[in-house]
């Protein structure tokens, strides 16, 4: 899994484009249509014509802006799952990781968020491309650990944090395993930070 900064959202506008206006309305309508269709029918049934019809726009507009279904789905997932929110920075590693875990879990267990996540990961797997949602979460973990390091606070490695936080959260949510609630998220943080350190 890449930990580099995620690629630019395929549905975002360039820096020279004025925000708002018709462009923003089109994006909002298309994104909402994708979210509804994925929740209703699943990602495998998603098509550009169906999205355009639901959003009330011309299919050519969708093709021109997003290219194909895969890019469109990734764009909506990145926007709706909000993985680009700033990483928590409370001044304490345990608090930061706990807030991150709870916030991430809330995002991906919402029915709409879960449907988009499943669709996004399925598309990435079939296209053999990096998943921007996962990459962004990994980057948030790296940022949290960098803050701890700057404070001189002992911390696990990024790989350890991903293996003990990111992986089980996404695994349990995607496979609908219980528990997947805030206490479970907090227990993952406790298990990570309270376990004996791994010899370097």
Automatic annotation (TrEMBL):
Pfam families named in the record: TetR_C_11, TetR_N
Positions of the HTH tetR-type domain: 24-84
InterPro entries: Homeodomain-like_sf, HTH-type_TetR-like_transc_reg, HTH_TetR, Tet_transcr_reg_TetR-rel_C_sf, TetR_C
Keywords: DNA-binding, Transcription, Transcription regulation
Region entry Disordered, spans: 1-26
Record feature DNA-binding region, as residue ranges: 47-66
Residue ranges with Basic and acidic residues bias: 1-10
Ranges of Low complexity composition bias in the record: 11-26
Coiled-coil regions, chain positions: none
Protein name, as recorded: TetR/AcrR family transcriptional regulator
Record lineage: Bacteria, Bacillati, Actinomycetota, Actinomycetes, Kitasatosporales
């Amino acid at each position: 899994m890449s930990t580099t900064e995620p690629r630019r959202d395929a549905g975002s506008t360039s820096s020279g484009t004025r925000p708002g206006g018709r462009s923003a309305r089109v994006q909002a309508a298309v994104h909402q249509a994708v979210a509804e269709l994925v929740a209703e029918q699943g990602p495998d049934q998603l098509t550009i014509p169906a999205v355009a019809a639901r959003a009330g726009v011309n299919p050519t507009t969708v093709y021109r802006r997003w290219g194909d279904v895969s890019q469109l789905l990734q764009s909506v997932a990145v926007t709706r799952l909000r993985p680009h929110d700033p990483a928590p920075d409370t001044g304490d590693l345990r608090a930061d990781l706990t807030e991150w875990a709870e916030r991430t879990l809330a995002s991906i267990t919402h029915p709409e968020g879960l449907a988009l996540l499943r669709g996004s990961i399925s598309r990435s797997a079939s296209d053999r491309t990096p998943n921007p949602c996962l990459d962004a979460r990994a980057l948030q973990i790296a940022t949290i650990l960098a803050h701890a390091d700057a404070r001189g606070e002992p911390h696990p490695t990024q790989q350890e944090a991903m293996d003990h936080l990111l992986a089980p959260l996404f695994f349990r949510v995607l496979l609908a395993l219980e528990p997947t609630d805030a206490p479970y998220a907090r227990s993952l943080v406790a298990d990570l930070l309270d376990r004996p350190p791994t010899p370097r």
